[in-house]
């Protein structure tokens, strides 16, 4: 067993086999090599592979670890190198009777869980529109991660109408899982914990078997994972955990950073070894990352260093607006790509998925190939396609493909049998399905709630169709988004996934605004037909591909564990990165700072930070202040020859003279980032609610599309206005974007 290819700290960690050990492994410090050599060293010392347990978080990481160990030692039968869930499943399979299950129990995936919850909601007469499946499922998962039963949930929340509903669903869900001899993914860990806790003899067996335990990415463990590992290692105390508190970026998903920070409290005799030599990034990138992360109070002191040269300094560019930012990045990629650098050397890492669209557009204009990882392209996302289908029906009610896509988006209680009947009826009558469903008699033949919901949808689409000449595309979008119930259904889910979908919907609104402004600048009218044509051509040219040779677009969260020669981090502005929710919470701010650290340390050779003085996000435009993280950067690592040099101790004043904040290292107390998402949602609802003002002849009014005018006459249903430029228009009351001046 040759450890000479390890550095001194790695070698020390590999040879430290007895007692508790905390390996603080910084980004790019070779933690996998250290772990695999440590396992191989144990085996060479005569420890049976059967006595070794190594746990990580992904199947890919577990497979890679096993392969690397076997390359060092040969085949290792009996050794457990598994994910947490796989470990739990194996323990439960070996002790199914004690766990209260039959031998052939099954594991339900997400699809199975949702199907079961749908059946339960139906049987308990719970309205899925008020309590969506995703919302209920997220609550149940969160309760299981906290190891709380249905009864404990009710006691924690207190008895009210909502908590009683969720309690009854949660209780029935667990009952049916048992009845079906099934577990979900959360049960794999929770049932393992209870098995080991309730059966000391079984726990003793595993404690005697696994004399040496290793846990990778320990900073990402949650409460139950922590408890399981602590129990398994309680006898031998030979527990080695590897992680980096500076890379704990999944607290919103249950990770508890206290597990790694308090390791020495749990194991007072623990030895701590820091892996601080970085093999990935050049010196200036490491210095930049450290100058940011050192501002976190909740961290263990360490500083990455490298034997590599300092390399290029970090370039920071503040562009006039977000479109210019995307164009700047596309131009930089085009300039740097060449004989020694291919497109797959470049990555654009952004804070939210909603930011991807402008980069997709900019790269497409420059004919630069790209791929969107950990998510679909902007044009391929479900919520975007749903709203496009709604708009297609406004233009063409004969579009059955669009109709079938949105008939149950949001859920309206239209089952497969009802849809099949509508298809047959449409064929018999020679009409489209949209035309058939618009008939009140047909809608009346559906179940009561479904009939009302479908009629409402049909009326909204027909109203938009009749009035589309009097409405902007953005007005139509707001009407469809709000009045069909699509936005509310996502808001009711109250999950991180749903919030992400809402962000994408609001950014789609920005895209619509851009199209309207572009046509206006050309002196032309922006029509819904032309907009849909643009969408169709853009979408066809942008199919997701996984081949190499493409620029990578992805979120900062998704980039953890990856590396790229050149990294761009756009959106360096307060309110976007760090996000507005973090501005009032030290804990959330520290997690955002860790995310910034993770992003910076993905770069091997070049790091570009960019921002926009004016940004339109979720359909809302505003001037921005440069990110808190920029004020924390060491000025020595910044390139003074950059396009827009970041100069410490200056105040930036935008083009209309608004002071956007101090860059002297201290925040301006009066400044607080706006919440563009909340504002955009509110605007959509206001626009969709129509105007109920009491218009009278002679009132001066302003219209979103036609501008200023004077009311000629008004009745209960319409308002007739003579506009300065558009002339006389008869507008539908309650839908026209009309305001008194």
Describe this structure in words.
It contains 30 helices and 22 strands. The chain folds into five domains: 8-96 and 190-277, 3-Layer(aba) Sandwich (Rossmann fold); 108-180, Arc Repressor Mutant, subunit A (Orthogonal Bundle), CATH 1.10.10.160; 291-377 and 545-662, Rossmann fold; 381-537, PCRA, domain 4, CATH 1.10.486.10; 690-740, Beta Barrel (Thrombin, subunit H), CATH 2.40.10. The strands form five sheets. Strands 9, 10, 11, 12, 13, 14 and 15 form a seven-stranded mixed sheet that branches. The longest helix has 26 residues, at 496-521. The protein is α/β, with parallel strands linked by helices. Helix 4 (84-94) crosses helix 10, helix 6 (110-123) crosses helix 9 and helix 18 (382-395) runs antiparallel to helix 27 (528-540).
Compile the SSE list and pairings:
Blueprint: H1 8-15, E1 21-25, H2 31-44, E2 52-56, H3 59-73, E3 80-83, H4 84-94, H5 96-99, E4 106-107, H6 110-123, H7 133-145, H8 150-157, H9 161-179, E5 182-183, H10 185-198, H11 200-209, E6 212-215, H12 223-232, E7 239-243, H13 258-261, H14 263-266, E8 271-275, H15 283-293, E9 315-321, H16 322-336, E10 346-350, H17 356-365, E11 370-372, H18 382-395, H19 400-406, H20 416-429, H21 433-437, H22 440-444, H23 448-467, H24 473-483, H25 486-493, H26 496-521, H27 528-540, E12 551-555, E13 564-569, H28 586-600, E14 603-617, E15 620-623, H29 628-632, E16 651-653, E17 659-662, H30 676-688, E18 700-703, E19 707-714, E20 718-723, E21 727-732, E22 738-740
Parallel strand pairs: 1-7, 1-8, 2-3, 2-6, 4-5, 6-7, 9-14, 10-12, 10-13, 11-12, 13-14
Antiparallel strand pairs: 14-15, 16-17, 18-19, 18-22, 19-20, 20-21
């Amino acid at each position: 067993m040759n450890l000479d290819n390890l550095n001194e700290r790695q070698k020390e960690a590999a040879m430290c086999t007895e007692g508790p050990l905390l390996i603080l492994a910084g980004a790019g410090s070779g933690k996998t090599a250290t772990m695999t050599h440590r396992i191989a060293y144990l085996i060479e010392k005569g420890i049976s592979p059967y006595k070794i347990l190594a746990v990580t978080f992904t199947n890919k990481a577990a497979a890679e670890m096993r392969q690397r160990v076997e390359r060092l030692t040969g085949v290792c039968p009996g050794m457990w190198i598994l994910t947490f869930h796989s470990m739990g499943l194996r323990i439960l399979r070996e002790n199914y009777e004690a766990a209260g299950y039959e031998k052939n129990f099954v594991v339900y995936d997400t699809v199975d869980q949702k199907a079961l919850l749908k059946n339960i909601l139906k049987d308990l007469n719970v309205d899925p529109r008020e309590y969506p499946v995703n919302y209920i499922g997220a609550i149940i998962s969160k309760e299981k991660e906290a190891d709380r039963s249905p009864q404990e949930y009710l006691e924690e929340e207190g008895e009210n109408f909502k908590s009683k509903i969720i309690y009854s669903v949660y209780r029935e869900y667990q009952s049916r899982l048992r009845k079906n001899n099934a577990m979900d993914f959360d049960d794999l860990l929770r049932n393992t914990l209870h098995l080991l806790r309730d059966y000391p003899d079984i726990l003793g067996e595993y404690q005697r078997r696994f004399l040496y335990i290793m846990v990778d990415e320990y900073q990402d463990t949650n409460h139950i994972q922590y408890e399981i590992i602590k129990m398994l290692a309680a006898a031998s105390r030979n527990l080695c955990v590897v992680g980096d508190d500076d890379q704990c970026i999944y607290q919103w998903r249950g990770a508890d950073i206290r597990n790694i920070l308090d390791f020495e409290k749990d194991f007072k005799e623990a030895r701590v070894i820091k892996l601080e030599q970085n093999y990935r990034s050049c010196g200036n990138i490491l210095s930049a990352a450290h100058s940011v992360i050192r501002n976190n109070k909740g961290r263990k002191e360490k500083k990455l260093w490298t034997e590599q040269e300092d390399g290029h300094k970090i370039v920071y560019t503040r562009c006039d607006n977000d479109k210019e930012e995307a164009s700047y990045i596309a131009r930089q990629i085009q300039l740097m790509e060449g004989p020694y650098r291919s497109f797959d050397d470049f990555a654009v890492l952004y804070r939210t998925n909603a930011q991807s669209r402008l980069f997709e557009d900019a790269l497409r204009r420059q004919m630069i190939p790209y791929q969107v990882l950990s998510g679909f392209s902007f044009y391929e996302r479900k919520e975007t396609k749903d709203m496009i289908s709604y708009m297609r029906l406004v233009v063409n009610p004969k579009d059955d493909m669009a109709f079938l896509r949105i008939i149950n988006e949001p859920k309206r209680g239209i089952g497969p049998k009802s849809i099949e009947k509508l298809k047959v009826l449409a064929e018999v009558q020679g009409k489209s399905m949209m035309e058939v469903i618009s008939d009140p008699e047909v809608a009346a033949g559906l179940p009561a709630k479904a009939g009302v919901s479908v009629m409402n949808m049909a009326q909204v689409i027909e109203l938009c169709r009749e009035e589309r000449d009097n409405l902007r595309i953005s007005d139509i979008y707001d009407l469809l988004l709000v009045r069909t119930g699509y936005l509310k259904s996502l808001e009711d889910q109250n999950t991180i996934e749903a919030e992400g979908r809402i962000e994408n919907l609001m950014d789609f609104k920005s895209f619509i605004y851009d199209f309207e402004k572009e046509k206006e600048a050309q002196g032309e009218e922006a029509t819904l037909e032309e907009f849909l044509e643009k969408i169709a051509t853009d979408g066809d040219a942008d199919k997701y591909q996984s081949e190499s040779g493409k620029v990578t677009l992805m979120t900062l969260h998704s980039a953890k564990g990856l590396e790229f020669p050149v990294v761009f981090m756009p959106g360096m502005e307060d309110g976007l990165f760090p996000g507005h929710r973090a501005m009032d919470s030290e804990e959330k701010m520290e997690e955002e700072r860790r995310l910034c650290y993770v992003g910076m340390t993905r770069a091997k050779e070049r790091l570009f930070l960019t921002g926009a003085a004016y940004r339109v996000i979720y359909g809302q435009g505003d001037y921005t202040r440069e990110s808190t993280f920029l004020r924390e950067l060491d000025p020595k690592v910044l390139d003074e020859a950059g396009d827009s040099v970041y100069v410490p101790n200056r105040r930036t004043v935008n083009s209309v003279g608004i002071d956007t904040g101090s860059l002297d290292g201290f925040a301006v107390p009066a400044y607080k980032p706006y919440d563009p998402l909340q504002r955009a949602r509110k605007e959509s609802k206001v626009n969709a609610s129509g105007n109920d003002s009491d218009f009278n002849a002679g009132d001066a009014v302003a219209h979103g599309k036609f501008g200023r005018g004077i009311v000629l006459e008004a009745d209960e249903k319409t308002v007739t206005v003579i506009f300065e430029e558009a002339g006389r228009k008869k507008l539908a009351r309650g839908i026209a974007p009309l305001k008194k001046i």
